[in-house]
Design goal:
DNA-binding transcription factor activity, 2 domains, Transcriptional regulator, GntR family, globular, 5 helices, mainly alpha, Tscrpt_reg_HTH_GntR, three-stranded antiparallel β-sheet, Arc Repressor Mutant, subunit A, 126 residues
């Protein structure tokens, strides 16, 4: 598992961890059932506080990306999208697209960027 953390970023570290794991799942690098490092091992590897990793793992659990088992650790859990997830994603995308349009970006450019990201995540050529 390759997690890139930018300690100079304004984005909190636990959010960066969450985002990197979600990207790993989306790209297929972290498959269903993949065993994530323990909170302690992950924190030591990155050089951060265990509570930061724990916060990221709990967020991923609440969003349905991983399952946590006290005896066996954290595992990727790929599940079907729920209606609640779909609504949340729609709301989040609406804000992002609105921001792009408000800054003068063209619809075609937005669609092209989304297509490029999807292709990148799936390892497809454009």
């Amino acid at each position: 598992m390759n997690i890139i953390i930018n300690f100079e970023s304004d984005v909190p570290i636990y959010i960066q961890i969450r985002n990197e794991i979600v990207k790993g799942i989306a790209s297929g690098n972290l498959e269903d059932g993949y065993s994530l490092p323990s909170v302690r091992a992950f924190a030591e590897d990155i050089g951060i506080n265990m509570h930061t990793v724990n916060k990221a793992y709990n967020m991923l659990k609440s969003e349905g990306y991983i399952v946590l088992d006290r005896r066996h650790g954290a595992f990727v859990s790929v599940s079907r999208i729920s209606e609640e997830d779909e609504k949340r994603f729609n709301d989040e995308l609406r804000v992002i697209v609105s921001s792009c349009l408000a800054k003068g970006m063209k619809k075609e450019d937005i669609v092209s960027i989304v297509q490029s990201i999807c292709n990148e995540m799936r390892g497809e050529n454009e």
